[in-house]
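Crash report, auto-generated. Payload:
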Amino acid sequence: MKLTPQKKQELFYAMLRIRRVQERIESLYLQDEMKTPVHLYIGQEAIAVGFCSVLNRDDYISSNHRSHGHYLAKGGDLKALIAELYCKTDGCSKGFGGSMHVVDVSVGQLGSSSIVGGGIPIGTGLGLALKMKAAHRVSVVFFGDGAADEGVLYESLNFAMLKKLPVVYVLENNQWSVCSHVSSRKAGDNIFHQADPHLLLTRKIDGNHIQTIYETAHEAVEHARQGLGPSFIECETYRILGHAGCASQDPAGYRNPAEVESWKSKCPVITFKDLLLAEKILTPDILDEMEKQIASEISAAFEFAQKSPLPAGKDLQKNLFCE
Amino acid sequence: MPWTKIEANCIEPDFANECMETGRLIAYADAIREGLRQALILDPNVFIMGQGVDDPSGMFGTVRGLHEEFGPERVFDTPLAETSLTGVAVGAALGGMRPVYFHNRPDFLLLAMDQLVNHAAKWHYMFGGHVNVPMVVWACIGRGWGSAAQHSQALQGLFFHVPGLKLIMPSTAYDAKGLMLSAIKDNNPVLIIDHRFNFKQKGLVPEAMYTLPIGKGVVRRPGKDITVVAISHLVVDAFNAAEELSQQGVDVEVIDPLTLRPLDKELILSSVSKTGRLVVADTGWKTGGVTAEISAVVAEEAFSFLKAPIERVACPDVPTPAGHTLEDAFYIGKPEIKSAIMKAISFRG
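Recovered output after restart:
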């Protein structure tokens, strides 16, 4: 898949937009108006953007507590996301879900789970529904290295292979589960590289390199669309911020600052920007225009969220059961 | 009692079901199977999954042969992976299907708790009503024959605790079919906990498709002296106890809630407000379980009508033992219900 200059610009714009949204949340978080635990996606933007850029609107994604990037990359409504962070009635979950539970049915995001690994079998089941309906659509599941510790991943992969489901499993190995490093949780590099390629397409790729992600995503999604079954893509990346909250809330001492700095230098957004500037696909003027457009969209979303009413206590019993 | 196959060798008491005119006398398992088959014919989105659903024994006969009639795409065996497969059912339901997930034993539902409690039960509420999970999970309590601590548990008390999860415990063939069809039609996650002892019964069941209201209990036997709320196969025990005690001049009303969540409180409260005495009988443990909750509801909302302390008939708070002499000591039934009734009746405050 050769990336056209226009496609490169689109991918960059989508990554930059997610980065700036996360930064704005981060900068305002200590105001304590967003009363919900936010898990920011800074440093991992290329993965959500790369995979979602090869999906159609009616393909499904499943995601986790660190869900903002996936939601936005799939086309989820920004205003509804920010309003959900303020737990307002115009939030995507009407203030009942908060930051970890985002939904936008119109773009195939049917709800994110904050139980680590919880979205993996659900995304598998969405794949089963697609296969039963012969829909030629795809279900992509995003999860972290912590979720790869869970037995449910093994169970789900087995079932997806057994039924040849159109599911793409995307492991975002950001190396940290809260303050536990992957090396303290895993006996080496042992996640499913031995699978029979006829049963499971597996790749391990640079999760900060958008071109590689785009190409791999295209391969895996087409594989699924053609009925060839599931794939498992491990993307090596890094969680730049702490587990939750803003930078100043990240407890010091559990990781080496030099490690963080070295990954900052591999920032997916900045490295791609520098490349596109060198290729003259981006110019300072275009970049400036992009920044302005994004900043104004974000400001409008925060304004919308702040003005939206809070849910009323009388609505507590709403939606316990569906009619 | 044979282990893998249950003989339907007794006829349900005459509960005066509304199908007396139109019903045929069929086995409990066949009633469930008929409902499932009709659902599979009616709606192409319905499918049945579960470990062993294509076995020759067909999950006590409830799904026997359905995989042959509807094909392995719609009635299929699963890996032994209850956590993930419950999540698969949740995802399939979100994707527009209506999965029915069969388990031989509720004990294995403990492996599925994460997806049932953390996911299925919360999805509609947590996402502001934008999504819903129309799925049915069915499991059958395996009392007897030394099934012991991990193959016989009556865990309805655990699931009863969870908002967002409908919980049905049928007791007659007629209700088993109608409530299965209602559960499949329902747009929420519904758990049906059945009991091996129900499968010994034959009952009157109409051939046509029908649904029954989830959340509505029934009066199995009207009476004026005391109310017995009994769950699952204990309804038959309570009914027989009532018939025997009527010879001694005690007039017992037997209530079968059929659904635990949502619970038909009104039916229970109106009965107690008439009789003033209550026995609650459940197949599960006593502490923190179904008898505790129903007793609490009555104590809270009908205290002024009570003429005697509420009596509870439930299993003692120990794991199920294997040996049959120990099983005899553990399980409760008609004799315990009878003595609870007499204790409440003879109470003089």
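Post-recovery validation: The two ends of chain B are 44 Å apart (CA to CA).
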